[in-house]
Structures are given as C-alpha cells and as structure tokens.
Specification:
Largest sheet: 9 strands, antiparallel
Number of helices: 0
Number of strands: 9
Distance between the termini: 52 Å
Order of helices and strands: EEEEEEEEE
Radius of gyration: 21 Å
Shape: globular
Strand order of the largest sheet: 1-2-3-4-5-6-7-8-9
C-alpha cells in the first residue's frame, strides 16, 4: 500500500513591468501514520523574484522540501535526510543582440535527523555568442560536495556549437 494520500498544491506568479514574483507550495498527506513513521505530511515549497532592467536580469529563489520518513520500511536512521533547503542566485547581461554572459550560484543543504547537515554548492559562468543561425557557447562550472558527500568536488567545462538550417 502507498504511504501517500491526497495532496494539495498552490502556486501564484505576479508580474509588473520588469519585476516577477512567484511562490508555490505543495503538501502530500501521510495516509498511514504509525508510531514508527513521521506523523507530519511531506511538504515542499519555493518562492522567487526576478528583475529585468535594460540588458540585465537578476534572480533569487529559495526552496524547501521536508520528506516523508518511515521506520516501518527500515529507511530511517540518525543520518537519514529529513529536509532540504536550497538557495539560487543569478545574474545575466546581454552585452549585445549577439553576446550574453551569465553567472549562477546554487547552494543546497541536506539536514539529517541527527542535527548534522551537508551543503552542496555549485557555481557556473556561461558565455554565448550568436552569428546568424549559429551559436557558440561555453560554460564553466564547479560543484562542491556533490550528492551531499563532503569532498566530492568536480569542475567541468562545456563547449557547445548549435546551428539552425
């Protein structure tokens, strides 16, 4: 039998001139609460703000997710993740109709039942140049504590060429 029952979600977005705001929330009911299972429902939600002024766009968002836990199926230990807390920030600049540059940073924290946490962090710089039907793009990203594992760090660079015929 499924642990989840009915769910409820609500989202709203408001835009005015260059400003856009939004929020979303969802809850799924724990339909089989027992002494061995988390009584609370699963919840996730987010909010964001984006502002465009001239060639610049700036964005910020927060997200949260509390997961449903259950000892009844042997998944809950002191190191089980109970919730995630995420923050994203970005800025983009359109230098011309053909050239754009952007930067994004994301942090996500996994909080465990034993009151410890691990922060996963990613940062990326992207540049794109368009010539007619062809776009050249390069992105360099660094990721620290991938999968919420301390020391699991990687860097990557991607070069892309796309063409429209």
């Amino acid at each position: 039998s499924s642990t989840y029952g009915k769910g409820t979600s609500l989202g709203v977005t408001v835009a005015y001139e260059g400003l856009t705001l939004g929020a979303y929330g969802a809850e799924r009911e724990n339909k089989n609460p027992t002494a061995a299972a988390q009584v609370s429902d699963e919840f996730n939600g987010s909010w964001f703000v984006n502002y465009n002024f001239g060639p610049v766009s700036v964005g910020y968002s927060k997200a949260y997710k509390a997961v449903l836990l259950s000892d009844a199926i042997g998944l809950t230990t002191a190191t089980t993740i109970s919730d995630y807390d995420q923050t994203n920030m970005s800025i983009a600049f359109a230098a011309s109709d053909d050239l754009s540059v952007s930067y994004e940073r994301e942090t996500s924290e996994a909080n465990r039942l034993n009151d410890t946490s691990t922060e996963q962090e990613s940062a990326s710089v992207q540049v794109a140049y368009t010539m007619g039907g062809m776009t050249l793009a390069v992105a360099h990203s660094s990721h620290d504590n991938n999968g919420y594992v301390v020391g699991a760090n990687t860097d990557q660079t991607v070069l892309a060429v796309t063409m429209a015929f």
